[in-house]
Amino acid sequence: MTIARASIDKPILTWLLILGCFLGGLWGFASLGRLEDPAFTIKQAVISTSYPGASADQVAREVSEPLESAIQQMGEIDKITSVNQPGRSLIEVEVHSTYDGDMLPDIWTELRAKVRDAARNLPSGVEAPLVNDGFGDVFGLYYAVTAPGYTDAEIYRLGTWLRRELLAVDGVTDVELAGLPEEAIFVEPELAISVAHNVPPQAVVEALATADSVASAGSVEHGNRRTVIEAPEGSDSVSDISGLSIGVNGEVLNLFDVAQVHRGPVDHPSLLLRHNGEAAFSLGVAGRADENIVEIGHRVDDRIAELFAEIPYGVTLNPIYQQHLVVEEASNDFLVNLAMSVAIVVGVLALFMGWRAATVVGATLLLTVVGTLFFMAIFSIEMERISLGALIIAMGMLVDNAIVVAEGMQISMQQGKSSREAAEDTAGKTQIPLLGATVIGIMAFAGIGLSPDATGEFLFSLFAVIGISLLLSWGLAITVTPLLGHYFFKRGTEGGADAYGGAMFRAYAATLRAALKARWLVIAGLVGITVLCLIGFGQIRQQFFPNSNTPLFFVHYKLPQGSTVHDTADDLAVIEDWLDSRDEVTAYTSYAGGGATRFMLTYSAEKPNPSYGHMIIRTESIDTIPALRADLEKFGRQALPQGEFRTRRLVFGPGGGDPIELRVSGPDPVVLRQIGQQVIEVMEATSPDVLDPRTNWREPELVIRPDYATERAQSAGISRDDVASTLRFATDGITGGVYREGERQIPIIVRQSPDASSTLRDQPVWSQNAQDFMLIEQVIDGLHAEVQNTLIHRRDRVATLTVGADIPPNRTAAEVFGQIREAVEAIHVPQGYALTWGGEYESSSDAQASLNSQLPLSLLIMVLISVLLFNAVRQPIVIWLLVPMSVNGVALGLLGTGLPFTFTALLGLLSLSGMLIKNGIVLVEEIDLVRAEGRPLREAIVEACVSRLRPVVLAGATTILGMLPLLGDAFFVSMAVTIMGGLAFASVLTLIAAPVFYYVIFARSERRAVAAAAAA
């Protein structure tokens, strides 16, 4: 007894399966985690090390090099890059893609050990390296907080209070604040008074160092008790600090006698942030990865609403990005798309097979979808952009199995068989071919789903969901579909009307006979069309991942290296004024000195730099972005010619960097810059689509260096450090201690008053030997200016300069890359230097290479299954001859719509191949079965193909129409068009090309068999 018959004979088990899928699906939908994008592990850590006073070159040689050498010993490390600036080293470490997220904690532990051991041998003055492995945290609830009229201290307390309150919300893992006002206590000695009383700046620094320190004062014991003694409280106000006593040469002075003490913002804050033109700070909330972000987001919203009663008047939390609302909208859209797809499928089936078959297949389809949700919840597969898209993609494929079984049962019952006989007969013939074809369809996605890199991790849920849903569709097709057919289908009389006698079937049979007769002409035509379409496919624009459908875009602004953060902020204010006049702009946030907190998994911020400005601009819809970008680009370039002004769309998928990138590596920075400039010139001369070419080393900066007069200075007892301290006192100031305000530590900076009229040459320097001041020009031979690289990038321990460029919005990176590649690669570089492509070309190539490494195994499994199904070779040859022709409809569809061939379109092409093979297997299996009954080859082919006409057409039509909801999704539109166009053509291939190929391959053996029978 087959499974199909058992499902009818023992309906209680089948009904339990139905209720399990339905109720489990409802539970799964309610309990599934929800995200915007699928979680993929950012396998990077950042090591930050300070080396005050060192040049960028010294930092690279004395800090980055020894740390990188130690890190390189780890076999898990794939890539090491570093950015070296004056006084600071920033090393990024990337782990090989073959290591999954569960292995990272142990890798980071080993990394910390390597860094800690290497740090022992770093030069004196280097601070302990800090390892940050939380580089990939996503703060999906992202706000700009404005508090006009409040002091910097009040704003800081507001920010820390909000952070503390939101961290208590269930499901919140971290809250990050950025752009809070940075304050300091400034102690500005009056030089004339200080010199007159012989009060060197170092004496002030030493007095401040312990003014507010925390130290143990011991304890006393009395009886059986121990009592702790606290140290005296320190200076806890600006006035207390100004009243500190300073002892110099037996004389005691109060600090206010020799210096002005005041509190204020630091001169060079790390980040200046404005929202809609108002000063603001950002607040980012991160939720647990294993929880529903929608629920976490609503809990945060509720807590913020409760806090409004305590939030001071005038303070506003302005949403920049609310991931939970985006995800919630996507989930609701999914329900709408699901309902539309089911309605489309049921409508098409009702039109061609009648309402009974439509009910049976539609119910099976619905159970498959909700059952998939049940298994997604069990296997912790979240509902996000990829998994929801996979359900829509699978929608059309899911009906194939049910249609074949329902069609077979309905026809058999119309011919007089009972439902049990019809179920057993139909399932007996088709369940194994359908299973094999289903596994082949799943394996078409295995190459990308099992890819070990970030792209494979990003798209894994596509493979998982399609695998679950297709296997479930097969299981339900041989259990639930027969039972529902038993209830709904009517039994006819034996020898009733021919089920395939309709006009459509007769027309197809006549067409197929003509094609078989003119088989060589048909084959020549198919080959010719395929060649033309392959040529046309080469004209399709190539793109890695498509632009996002989130109505956001970015501004990147870069002033010459060395510009201040205030200069950057002032220039961004010009753009803000322009944006205020645009109705399509709903909000904007500007950042001077760095980028935003990572509020999306696919967002990658620029590294901190005072001369860098960034803006996030939100519009009413994505349709308004192209025109707005064009206008903004034009205005920004005209209004701010002193800087580099660019805009960029938010892009789906993992990635980062510029669309066009070329790395130049080698030992000499001078030669690197020369080659980089040559590359830029060649790029611009070769293609007009290369926009804003630049290097990541940026412009060299002017550096002032005092020439230390060794003999004179040492005779006077003045060291190089004394000269450096004096110059630092005259400029940025010397940190003399901290002023504790609750948990906040405010630096106390001793510096010369900015209003002082003295120059660097006029600065008095304290002589320890003479216990007196002398002018700094007496111990130096002048101040000399020199040009230095202040941004030195290294990659795998080699100095590497990267040339980056943008492209026009109507072009793809692949198009522009194709224009410049040959000319750039023709550039001659000296021995020891190398050119390496990066950007989208490298990301795409890595993803393709990863896919190609998995694809042979997938193809091998698919071929083996097809061979094992038939226990022969010729039938699989017939099926696989169709696969190269699947590109025909794809080329026509993408060329007709003007869409690029993206990475998701590649997935569509792979899935299309799986669908085509699946249809081919069912058709060829039916031809074999009819031939086994003794029919002549030609008639067997026609009869079998006519019997499979309706399932093939309906499967193709329902799949194509099921893609309609995805045409409005920017991420999946190219995949949808690929499948729709390809499947429309593939249906023709299945119904015409497959029988023609079958006839050609089997005609000779048929003739030999007939001749042998005649001879006998």
Briefly characterize the structure:
It comes from Roseovarius nubinhibens (strain ATCC BAA-591 / DSM 15170 / ISM). 52% of the residues lie in helices and 19% in strands. The protein is built from 31 helices and 30 strands.
Task: Give the topology.
Layout: H1 3-9, H2 11-31, E1 44-50, H3 56-71, E2 77-85, E3 88-95, H4 104-119, E4 130-132, E5 141-146, H5 152-167, E6 172-178, E7 183-189, H6 191-196, H7 201-209, E8 216-222, E9 225-230, H8 238-242, E10 245-248, E11 251-254, H9 255-258, E12 259-265, E13 272-275, E14 278-287, H10 293-307, E15 316-322, H11 323-353, H12 355-378, H13 385-414, H14 419-449, H15 454-458, H16 460-477, H17 480-488, H18 503-517, H19 519-537, E16 552-558, H20 565-580, E17 585-592, E18 612-619, H21 625-639, E19 644-649, E20 660-665, H22 669-686, E21 691-695, E22 701-708, H23 710-715, H24 720-730, E23 734-741, E24 744-750, E25 764-767, E26 772-775, E27 780-788, E28 792-795, E29 798-806, H25 813-825, E30 834-838, H26 839-870, H27 874-880, H28 887-897, H29 903-932, H30 937-962, H31 973-1015
Parallel strand pairs: 7-24
Antiparallel strand pairs: 1-3, 1-4, 2-3, 2-28, 5-14, 5-15, 6-14, 7-12, 8-9, 10-11, 13-14, 13-17, 16-18, 16-19, 17-18, 20-29, 20-30, 21-29, 22-27, 23-24, 25-26, 28-29
Helix pairs in contact: 1-2, 1-14, 1-17, 2-12, 3-4, 10-11, 11-12, 11-13, 11-30, 12-13, 12-16, 12-17, 13-14, 13-16, 13-30, 14-16, 14-26, 14-29, 18-19, 18-30, 19-28, 19-31, 20-21, 22-25, 27-29, 27-31, 28-31, 29-30, 29-31, 30-31
